[in-house]
Design a protein that fits this description.
Blueprint lengths: L9 H19 L6 H8 L3 H8 L2 H25 L4 H18 L1 H9 L8 H22 L7 H21 L5 H16 L16
Helix pairs in contact: 1-2, 1-4, 1-6, 3-4, 4-5, 4-6, 4-7, 5-6, 5-8, 5-9, 7-8, 8-9
Length: about 210
């Protein structure tokens, strides 16, 4: 016996289709997910999916865009009142890890990326790096450091947060608070000892 259909409003049906497809895309990827499977899971006919999203690509793009907007606004809000590099890393790390905790399927979609959707994890990281760069530049000027290097250091800080976050998605042996604290430990203990004109300690020998 086929699953019994549930009558929903157009907006409710749209949200249901997004929820069903989001889980399938995260588990099977874009290519491994079919409109037939989405429709079956949602107990609707295929034309209903096409009616709401125009097809699989349109549905995928809507989901990725929604996830990117959610995580971007979360991190931006966390950075808005930051006043020091240690606070920047701590708040950004906790914001990202909390998003992963609440939306692991969404994060997997962003990590996978796709030519079919504009939003990806790399897009997010680039936007965050720009925000962090502006905060660092002001801090560098205040401490007599070269502000033009702020974009480089911003990329470093974003990397300290971005890669461990991907690891934590699959390995929850540590709490998000502990992971964030270790990120801050590495970043802050490095930033507070910055030299104004660093040089390699062991430069390669000239041939």
């Amino acid at each position: 016996m086929p699953p019994k259909r549930t009558r929903m409003s157009a907006s409710q049906r749209r949200e249901q289709l997004i929820a069903v497809a989001r889980a399938l895309f995260a588990d099977r990827g874009f290519e491994g997910t079919s409109i037939e499977e989405i429709a079956h899971r949602a107990t609707v006919s295929k034309p209903v999916v096409y009616e709401h999203f125009g097809g699989k690509q349109g549905l995928y793009a809507v989901i990725v865009d929604r996830e990117l907007t959610m995580i971007s606004s979360t991190i931006t809000e966390a950075l808005r009142s930051s006043s020091s590099p240690s606070v920047i890393v701590e708040r950004a790390a906790l914001a990202l890890l909390t998003y992963i905790e609440n939306s692991p399927d969404g994060f997997r979609l962003l990590l996978a990326g796709s030519d079919r959707a504009a939003g990806t994890y790399s897009t997010l990281l680039s936007d965050v790096a720009i925000q962090v760069s502006g905060i660092l530049a002001a801090q560098f000027r205040a401490h007599g450091l070269e502000a033009s290097t702020a974009p480089l250091y911003a990329q470093m800080l974003v990397g300290i947060v971005a890669m461990p976050a991907q690891w934590w998605l699959e390995d929850r042996s540590m709490s998000k608070e502990a992971v964030a604290a270790h990120m801050v430990n590495l970043a802050w203990n490095g930033l507070r000892g910055l030299q104004p004109d660093p040089a390699l300690r062991h430069p390669p020998a000239l041939s």
